[in-house]
Amino acid sequence: MTRTIRFTATLALLAALAVPASASMSAQGKPAGGAPAAQAQPARPGQDWAAAPSSERTYKVKLDFNRWHDVAELQADMRTLEKAYPKFLKYTSIGKSVGGRDIALMVINNPDTGADTAKPAMYIEANIHGNEIQGGEVCLYTIWYLMEHYGKIDAITRLVDERAFYIVPTINPDGRDYFMKGPGGNARTGHLPVDDDNDYQFDEDGPEDLNGNGVIEQIRKHVPGQGTHRKSAADPRMLEPVPAGEVGDYVILGQEGVDHDGDGRVGEDGPGSYDPNRNYPADWQPTYVQGGAMDYPFQLPEAQAANAFLLAHPNVAGLQTFHNSGGMILRSPGAEQTGEYPAPDVRVYDEIGRNGERMLPYYRYLVIWSGLYTVHGGVTDWGNDTLGILSFSNELWSGGQYFTSPDLKEQQKDPTSPIAPRVASYFFNDYLEFGDQLTEWKPFTHPQFGEVEIGGSFRKTFGRVPPRFMNEELCHRNMAFTLYQADEMPRMSIGETKVERIADGVFKVWVDLVNDKVAPTILAKAAQNNVVPPDLLTLDGKGVEVLSASWVPSKWRPAVAPMIDQKDLKRIMIRNGHPGRTTRTVQYLVKGAGSLTVKYASVKGGAAQKTIALQ
Q1: ∠ at Cα 64 (49, 380), nearest 5°?
Q2: Helices 154-162 and 134-148 sit at what angle, rounded to 10 degrees?
Q3: Cα 266–chain centre separation
Q4: CA–CA separation, 536 and 155 (whole Å)
């Protein structure tokens, strides 16, 4: 009875508040045309809702993020966004790939608040490995999101006003197109020809899609009672090695292809077969130490292009390189032998990385060498150690996200469960992808192996790449993490000032210098390596002479402070930069009249200045 009364009362209240959709109202709230309000007739409910504005935001450019873009589509969408937002976006290229493709770059900047090179900038790249494609979608999503929500979300508006962004959706366009348009075998690499098997031939024996179904599969031969493998009891589509002393019914002959060079191996010398993320100079090691490193650092044109761009843009203070997979937020060092970073830098990385874990479920914040594996000559080491850039590498997508609830995680601990880790991919394929991601074993007549079966493989986008229907969340969460990192890049400002008259024409001047972000203007490692120019504190005033300058604890607490021992006190070099979340106070003793202008200029923290009257 009580529920009925409440429901009836609610209907009455809604009826009383209803505004006739057919009547236009004046500014005074009366029906236009002078008709008495009592004569207005309510429209039908369907008409009310149809006429009401939607609460959903409208977008100038609509893009899809539940699919994968090839290089031409990425570049076309980037140009569409540039055309829609010409004030903020500039589409260009940082160079050419081995195959002659443009390495497309989007510059995001609000020119009303200054040139991009005068602001702390975030550099975001993706797809250095050809098969790690979802990072390209994250980059495109980031450009789209920043533009579509500028002026609508305050935090986004502030970011675009205060920061610059340099976004390269695919640093390896050759590898991306090869992976997307080919069958997917040997797709991690770039496409400079390499002799992998030392037979003086280059890329002559790669994997091949013999049956033309678009997937590089496995080859097995049925040899009853003579094989090394058998069908698994957990799922007959899987093969498993037989225990010692037993025999199986199958032998595995490797991945799909033909032995073209007669060395008894299939697919051992495919396109490229090197690692583009091992060709950077920080801790670079030759191939016998670090496989895939090439002959010398920056041998690859893609690496050269990235290096040239970043050297020309020393204002870049944050770097993100998107990889896959495993669900990780990684930082360097890449190798234990290089040693841990200085404690102040570790504190910055830790705060950003641990907050990243909160933003990215199933992702773990790790150091590369200890949490993943040793990497020599990688991008993040180069960014941090050689360029003084706070650098992260996100490994996009975690297999833990296939089954996300606590109940399902508990079920996976049972080895007999249909979603136990060993068979979980098969369950997901069968019931959520409707069998589309797994190829069946089918007979095939191989030119060298005779009658075999080819199949038993998941499609190239399964496993390392998220299901398409789950990709937009991946894009948004990872974008949010990089925007968070961009927001925590250093930002210098001039705080409070104070002037005290000491004698005729002689003044003490105190100036607060503020960096309210977690990152310092110069990383401690960068200061050790001397790879970032010093910050500059300058004072300019007609006829003003600086008698002394000191760093003091506070402008409100007089104290004896050692003088800054530099020759030109109107141009003080601060070699270690300004720490994060810190206010430092400089005390000048000056002689003169009128006013002076104090300016703090940092390559990675921007510039700030203030004019102070001497009175």
Answers
A1: 130
A2: 100
A3: 36
A4: 29
Instruction: Give tens-digit pLDDT for 188-227.
Output: 999 998 877 777 787 677 899 999 999 999 999 999 999 9
Query: What pLDDT is stored for residue 47 in this prediction?
Result: 60
Q: What is d(CA 167, CA 143) in angstroms, rounded to the nearest whole number? A: 8
From the list 460, 473, 469, the residue with the least C-alpha distance to 131 is 460
pLDDT over 70, % of the chain: 92
3-state secondary structure of 90: strand
Which burial class, exposed, middle or buried, applies to 282 when counting CB atoms under 10 A from its CB (0-12, 13-18, 19+)? buried
Q: What is the pLDDT of residue 45?
A: 54
User: Phi and psi for 340 in degrees, rounded to 5?
Assistant: -75, 155
Distance from chain centroid for Cα 155: 18
The closest alpha carbon to 145, from 480, 484, 489, 486, belongs to 480
pLDDT averaged over the chain?
91
- Collect all residues with Cβ–Cβ distance below 8 Å to 544 and sequence separation of at least 6: 590, 591, 592, 593, 594, 596, 614
Token pair for 272: 């490229």
Phi, psi of 39 (to 5 degrees): -85, -15
Q: Is the pLDDT of residue 511 over 60?
A: yes
Measured CA to CA, the distance from residue 77 to residue 404 in angstroms comes to 33
Instruction: Check the CA dihedral 23-25-30-34 and report its sign.
Output: negative
Decide: 354 and 203 in contact? Cβ < 8 Å. Answer: no
The b-or-e profile of 330-369 (16+ CB within 10 A means b, else e) is bbbbbbeeeeebeeebbebbeebbebbbeebeebbbbbbb
The pLDDT score that the predictor gives to residue 403 is 96
More confident residue, 562 or 450: 450
Q: Is residue 396 helix, strand or coil?
A: strand
- Alpha-carbon torsion angle 418, 420, 421, 422, nearest 10: -60
DSSP codes, 283-331: T---TTTSTT--SSTT-SHHHHHHHHHHHH-TTEEEEEEEEESSSEEEE
Strand order in the sheet with 248-255: 239-241, 229-231, 248-255, 218-227, 450-455, 442-446
89: left (phi over 0), alpha (psi -120 to 50) or beta: beta
Tell how strand 102-108 and strand 164-168 pair up: antiparallel
3-class state of residue 493 by DSSP: strand
Q: How many CB atoms lie within 10 A of CB 563?
A: 13
- Residue-wise pLDDT for 29-67, tens only, equals 333 444 444 444 555 555 666 677 777 888 999 999 999
Distance between CA atoms of residues 536 and 604, nearest Å: 12
